[in-house]
Design a protein that fits this description.
The complex is a heterodimer of chains A (642) and B (373). Chain A is α/β, with parallel strands linked by helices and 642 residues long. In chain A, 40% of the residues lie in helices and 16% in strands. In chain A, strand 18 and strand 19 form a beta hairpin. Chain B contains 9 helices and 16 strands. Classes of the chains: A alpha/beta (642), B alpha+beta (373).
Chain lengths: 642, 373
């Protein structure tokens, strides 16, 4: 048996047994202990869009200029989750956490931190409450309340490097499973862990696997559902981009447990980086014989290929996804038959979400019992949320189940910016509901959120402040739903369309008494009568907003008022003649020349021309504050002002 | 397989093993409304009107797709289900051009039937764009029209084209509200792969696919299609002495109610002024008067024969003369000198007789067939 591997031969190294994987891990460890300093630049999609590619290039160039290539390595990592503060750089042996790094900061980081081992203070994160500077990731309040299990490698490893993944215990779970455990044992372990599907429906993963294992058939499939479509959600994207190997490992474990030898990753074509990282990972793993025939000499075979989705939201639904892979148009089919019994090409098929599969390797390595102790007695483990909207720390957060919404939004998210008041939080994307302030102490869990009229869903969390019009939010989600409905079943195709029309009418000041009742009746019909999960859940935003914010609907309908001053048909701008100093600012700025007046002549808005863009209010000097935006029975107010 | 017993609306119903709740209920005389169900093709359960409440199931299930199980307890019309159906029907109507008086389907329209059965009182919903837009009617097909304003997206036509005809000329295209029946690349029907068999038109529950000539027959005559040797059974709808419609005979073991373009639409020749009613013979310059009857000699040849092949014209002769002429001509040849070709337009019996005649009378095996129309 081989005793050691020279690091030069790593490129062509093939893993033929469990033992050789261990050997490889030790070799990588030993090698990286001896190499010099490390600077990791976040190259997740969030940081990339704020320019992290340039920062990385600058590092590479400067290090070359200083001829420090042998001492300093630049690493591209996946998402840290704290996207609000990107680009993020973690530098030096001390792992100092720098935020908002630009390419101009690069020389300073190199000379100060990487060479002199000093901290560049101005790039540190400052706690807005205490004013304290945070040196490390773990010092930042955003990370303190999180428990990162799925995201534990994101931001640490280079997602394109299999060596990096092996170093952080990668493929150890797989090795353990295929060499020591029976498929039934694996399923038992998953059942013990209490892992439920993270894609939205929350179906217990162990039971799904068991059904597929017991379903008759030689050929079975494992599909990884990476068709993340909720607006504002990017959990799966970050996992696929930042830690693709753990998705592969999860699929392989699922394959072993279910008796499948083929895996398919269905990923949106809108995620080019995820596709790139996943295909690199598949190629590297295949090269190393960690994928393919007779994996680690145990006789277990598994292959993975990628199918790119064309961007239909409904293709995240299992049966529509299968149809899409089969080359048909992506429309759901009624269940039963369930895919676990009759799925892709009529064969038993497991479809698990990216996050679910990424959890699998952690469970396999640490045991189902370990996992079941995380979270609450009813909801186990952790959940990643993408915290977006009117919140200070926009980003990805992974918390234990049972954490309250208040903790997530105020402790981790840092609360609402600009001193505004919190109004509601929308969880679960278009399938979820709006949760008001009274319910902020609700612990997140499948049942607790369902009781409040929402769902965990795939983990979108959209925070709204007092400037958000709740009717407009409902209209927005219904617009999304009516566009993304596949259109085959009547209630979903026409029901969502009708609901959207009614909501649009309300926001345009054409609401009628009785609209709320019709909306509720339609919501109920669409929920009960639709074929698939999309129709069953898309009325949720309407139902929950009516439940908690009925008054706001009524104001829109009966009083033609939009308290948040969002619905343009219900507001208008006017100039307070006693404050106007006739400075001409608004007059010049108005894009449609709707403002009448001249120098020394108080300005006035011609309501028939005004498009309600709000420019006049913006440009009016704060000390005059002459432009105001009003809502209410618009016609009456307008008459008064004229 | 054995039967199953289930309970529908408190009535004990026996159903065949594997039958759906819808079939079981209909067989037992219990009405369940449905729009997208067609017994000839598979069920997909998209109209959602046949939803029924099944004890122990969380949500209402479509009766057309749910297999009846032993001991199942089904309720087809509790107030909740009826409310759901009414909302769905109202939704369909809000998207339907119901100018019923001008619709050729009126009186036979399944949507009208549903309105009567489920009940519809007022338009509570907005009229939708499909109606407002007044989409163009596809009149390109010579036999039937497609009116998208009346289409209810039940997909029966698509399933028919796929499952019964196997032609796949049409499919559902686009998504969400824009979903519609479409040919490949949205071509007009007659430029598409459509073979104009009209099977989809026959099954369309509403007035979206209707024949161009929609006349109701006074009576129907059962007959066999004269076009080819398959011998499809068909009913000709007759008005006075004119054929106005043809439909497949469901009982016929040959076609089980299906027809092709010829059988369904190709009956105009019956009353065509160009139709041949007597044998024709090519005559020569001397016999150009069309009305004149050709004289035939003892040998069966036309009189005054310069037997030179020249351009001639057809003139009518009677059957005796024709047969005499053919017989006498054949008498000049023997056995292997003769070859016979018969037609696919003939019936099996005619073809059989012809080969018998060729083999035993003409004494040759040189018999063939054009094999297709």
């Amino acid at each position: 048996m081989e005793k050691s591997i020279s690091i030069q031969s790593l490129e062509d190294y093939k893993i033929g047994s469990v033992e050789s994987l261990r050997l490889l891990r030790e070799t990588i460890f030993a090698d990286q202990q001896t190499t010099g300093k490390l600077v990791s630049v976040c190259c997740g999609s969030g940081c990339m869009s704020s320019g992290s590619e340039h920062v990385r290039d600058a590092f590479v160039r400067k290090i070359k200029d200083h001829e420090l290539e042998d001492e300093i390595t630049v690493k591209k990592t996946g998402c840290h989750g704290f996207c609000e503060r990107g680009p993020i750089v973690v530098a030096g042996p001390e792992k100092i956490f720098y935020q908002h790094v630009t390419k101009e900061d690069v020389p300073e980081i190199i000379s100060e931190t990487l060479i002199e081992n000093r901290v560049v203070e101005r790039l540190l994160y400052e706690d807005p409450v205490t004013g304290q500077k945070c040196f490390h990731e773990n010092d930042i309040p955003f990370y303190q309340k999180q428990r990162r299990i799925v995201l534990k490698n994101c931001g640490i490893i280079d997602p394109t490097s299999i060596e990096d993944y092996i170093k952080v215990d990668g493929f150890r779970a797989l090795a353990k499973i295929i060499s020591q455990m029976t498929p039934e044992g694996v399923i038992e372990e998953i059942k013990l862990s209490g892992l439920r599907g993270r894609g939205g429906a929350g179906f217990p993963a162990g039971i799904k696997w068991e059904t597929a294992r017991n379903a008759p058939g030689e050929e079975k499939y494992i599909i990884c559902n990476g068709d993340e479509g909720d607006p504002g959600a990017f959990m799966d994207r970050s996992v696929m981009e930042g830690d693709p190997y753990s998705v592969l490992e999860g699929m392989m474990i699922a394959g072993y447990a279910v008796g499948a030898s083929q895996g398919i990753i269905y990923v949106r074509a809108e995620y080019p980086l995820a596709v790139h990282h996943l295909s690199t990972a598949i190629a590297r793993a295949t090269d190393m014989r960690l994928l393919g025939h007779n994996i680690m000499g145990t006789g277990f075979n598994f292959e993975i290929k990628i199918v790119k989705g064309a961007g239909a939201f409904v293709c995240g639904e299992e049966t529509a996804l299968i149809a899409s892979i089969e080359g048909k148009s992506g429309r759901p089919k009624p269940k039963p038959p369930f895919p676990a019994i009759q799925g892709l090409w009529g064969k038993p098929t497991i479809i698990n979400n990216v996050e679910t599969l990424a959890n699998v390797s952690r469970i396999a390595l640490n045991g189902g019992k370990w996992y079941s102790e995380i979270g609450t007695p009813t909801d186990k483990g952790t959940k990643i949320f993408s915290l977006v909207g009117k919140v200070r720390n926009v980003g990805l957060v992974e918390v234990e189940m049972g954490t309250t919404l208040r903790e997530i939004i105020f402790d981790i998210g840092g609360g609402i910016p600009k001193g505004k008041r919190f109004k509601a939080v929308q969880t679960g994307g278009p399938s979820g509901g709006c949760i008001p302030e009274e319910l902020l102490d609700l612990p997140v869990g499948y049942e607790s959120l369902a009781k409040a009229g929402s769902i965990i869903g795939s983990g979108g969390m959209l925070v709204m402040d007092e400037d958000t019009c709740i009717v407009n939010i409902a209209r927005y989600f219904l617009d999304f739903a009516q566009n993304e409905s596949c259109g085959q079943c009547t209630p979903c195709r026409l029901g969502t369309k009708q609901m959207f029309k009614i909501l649009q009418d309300i926001t345009r000041g054409r609401g009628k008494p009785g609209d709320i009742e019709i909306l509720l009746e339609l919501s109920d019909a669409v929920k009960q009568a639709s074929i698939c999960g999309l129709g069953m859940t898309v009325p949720n935003p309407v139902i929950s907003t009516i439940q908690y914010f009925r008054k706001e609907y009524e104001e829109h309908i009966h009083e033609r008022r939009c308290q948040a001053l969002v619905c343009r048909s219900l507001i208008f701008y006017r100039i307070k003649d006693y404050r106007c100093k006739a400075c001409l600012k608004c007059l010049q700025a108005c894009p449609v020349d709707a403002i009448i007046g001249a120098k020394w002549q108080v300005h006035e808005i011609d309501q028939s021309k005004c498009i309600k863009c709000g420019t006049c209010m913006e440009v009016c000097p704060k000390r005059f504050n002459a432009v105001e935006c009003v809502t209410g029975l618009t016609e009456v107010l307008r008459d008064q002002s004229e | 397989m054995s039967d199953v017993t289930l309970n529908i609306n408190g009535i004990t119903v026996r159903a065949d093993y594997g039958a759906t709740i819808l079939t079981a209920a209909h067989d037992a005389g219990i009405y369940i409304p449905t729009l997208c169900h067609c017994p000839d093709v598979s069920s997909i359960g998209v109209c959602r009107l046949c939803l029924v409440r099944i004890e122990s199931r969380r949500r209402p299930e479509p009766a057309c797709r749910t297999i009846a199980e032993e001991g199942m307890v089904v309720v087809t019309d509790d107030p909740e289900i009826e409310r759901l159906r009414r909302v769905i029907l109202e939704l369909i109507l809000s998207d339907h051009d119901f100018n019923c008086l001008l619709c050729p389907k009126s009186g036979q329209c399944r949507l009208q039937e549903l309105v009567n059965r489920i009940g519809f009182k007022e338009h509570r919903f907005n009229r939708l764009d499909r109606v407002a837009k007044d989409l163009p009617i596809d009149t390109s097909n010579p036999f039937f029209d497609f009116n998208p304003n009346k289409c209810v997206q039940c997909t029966i036509c698509v399933r028919t084209c796929h499952e019964i005809v196997g032609n796949d000329a049409i499919d559902m295209a686009y998504r969400s509200y824009d979903i519609r029946v479409s040919t490949f690349a949205d071509q007009p029907l007659n430029e598409s792969a459509c073979m104009s068999c009209g099977e989809c038109m026959e099954r369309c529950p509403v007035g979206a696919l209707v024949p161009k000539k929609a006349e109701y027959p006074n009576r129907e005559v059962k007959t066999t299609c004269p076009y080819c040797g398959v011998g499809c059974g068909l009913y000709l709808g007759v008005r006075g002495n004119t054929i106005v419609r043809a439909r497949g005979d469901d009982e016929s073991p040959v076609n089980k109610g299906n027809l092709c373009i010829r059988g369904r639409f190709g009956y105009n020749f019956v009353d065509s002024p160009d139709r041949l009613s007597l044998p024709l013979m090519r005559a020569y310059d001397e016999f150009t008067q069309p009305s004149s009857v050709v004289e035939v000699t003892e040998e069966g040849r036309p009189v005054t024969l310069p037997l030179v092949k020249r351009e001639g014209k057809f003139v009518e002769i009677n059957w005796d003369q024709a047969i005499k002429y053919v017989a006498s001509s054949l008498a000049h040849y023997k056995g292997e000198e003769i070859a016979a070709v018969s037609s696919a337009r003939c019936t099996n019996e005619e073809n059989y007789l012809f080969q018998k005649f060729t083999r035993s009378v003409l004494k040759t095996n040189n018999i063939d067939h054009c094999a297709r129309l």
